[in-house]
Amino acid sequence: MSIRTTITIIIFVLSGLAWVTVANKPTPISFKVPAGWPQPLYDFKKNPLTKEGFELGRKLFYDEKLSKDSSVSCASCHQQFGGFATYDHNLSHGFNNTLTTRNAPALQNLAWQKEFMWDGGVTHLDLQPLAPLTAVNEMGETLENVLKKLNRDTAYKRMFKAAFGTNIITTEKMTKAISQFVLMLVSSDSKYDKVKRGAASFLPNEKMGEAVFEQKCMHCHPPPLFTDNSYRNTGLLVDTTLNDMGRMRITRNSLDSLKFKVPSLRNVAITAPYGHDGRFFSLQNVYENYRNKMQVSATTDSLLQHKIPLTNIETSQLTSFLRTLTDTSFLKNPAYAPPGYEITPFFIRYN
Amino acid sequence: MIGAITVAMTLMAFMHTPFKRQEVTVLQFSHRVGNKPLQLFDEVYTNRFNEPFTVTKFRYYISPISITNAEHRKIILPHRYYLINEADSSSKRIELPYKGTIEAITLLLGVDSLQNVNGVHSGSLDPVNGMYWTWNSGYVFAKLEGQSDSSHAPAHGFTWDVGGFRKKENALRLIQLELPPSAANTITIKADLLAWFDAVHPLRITQSPICHQPGALATQLADNYSAMFSIAP
Description:
The structure holds 2 protein chains of 2 kinds. By secondary structure, chain A is mainly alpha-helical. Chain A is about 35% helix and about 0% strand. In chain B, strands 3, 4, 5, 6, 8, 9, 10, 11, 12 and 14 form a 10-stranded mixed sheet that branches. In chain B, strands 1, 2, 7, 13 and 15 form a 5-stranded mixed sheet that branches. The longest helix of chain B is centred in the first third of the chain and has 15 residues, at about 1-15. The interface of A and B includes residues 1, 5, 249 and 250 of A.
């Protein structure tokens, strides 16, 4: 065989290899930090965002197959139209008529959170899905079975290959994909944000509400994230059927008794019910607690030792202001809807 | 064409030439209960408090840290976590990339704090191995589970799952084992499960059949089981 033929064969083989390599490279997504926001806490270097990883995470997020009896998905309790909290449920519903002990938190701006759950028990975003997947009163499945189901599914095999270059599905790859989807759930385009950018202006009532907010709420709910991510005891009486001691369950430190994470107020107007156990069904219930019903004791947060005085007029102004934190472009972003849909279709099951 | 095939085959043959195998020392773990070999499920053992018990699960994380050679020099080993699992005999054999006389060996029992909080890992640290607390992030460092007539817990179970990486609750333990002079290829490390009950703190199944979180009981169990190892003669 001539040298020429050999070279031709080698070039042919190499170009083929090059094509395969190029075709397998996932498309990177750049994570945009909204102007004036702090740097995210999530380490994107360890899990670079890609279009393929995001789409895979989205499929996993909406897939009921991940639960023991294929009845609930992540999205069952984290509904896009409800700010990725659960519309109307005080406590989250698990598979097989089970009930959890807490209200599903809204998912947004997770790249700026270091600890997760109402008690901060989960210390990394990638670790978070493990809890609901395996809890007997949530999705009730074992990780082993979840991985088995995924590894048997050719569509998933293909998507993992596209996102991570391997179709061997592991806990690490699965949770990284879910993180990629939820990290992109950035809510930063509410009326409030537009006003701050100079692209809109507050109505008089909203403006007055902002003044009330700055005086009475902002210390624990500072913008732009509207939470300081601390744990605080807000004087809520223990529900004797739940006996939820909050942060103390994690730290086993009695000083942390009844402390719960300060939730973000972004999209707050549409994420009722409120509180770690969803005991408040409206913003009015929350105001009533802070100005009247809360039980002040020695362990109640120092900022709440005198409760929060609020007049009726102030509460209505506050509501007007909090409504400006509703981000409709986030709530209706087709990229966050179930794969193949523009919005969550009516037949998606929420039990 | 024949030329191209020859080239390809030569290349493949070259690629398949086995590289010189690295010289290794094998650590073989042997699990015992007193003077009996550990047998999962069937065998009933008795601890010092006369409590009968069976064992259904026995697993722990180990990471060889360093060895001291014949010249009393410490050689740091590549950091790797092994999950030793009684139910999987192949897991009880690990290879250290070193050959020669070993005077002492240092092992880390558990998983260091960083690995507990920086995301999801693969291999032996994959949470699918059932050694991870999902609701309060952290690895279970060691597990001894079984049944006992002395247990008042549901189904007479006793489940000792030990972990904890936070200050005051640290269940991580360093173990130093001295070796008799020998250049043997295989070192057998014996682990006696009876140490879990009484090596440092007397812990009775009757009193504490369940340990499912970091804290005082977990650290006491860690004190106890860190004394379970010895070198088999």
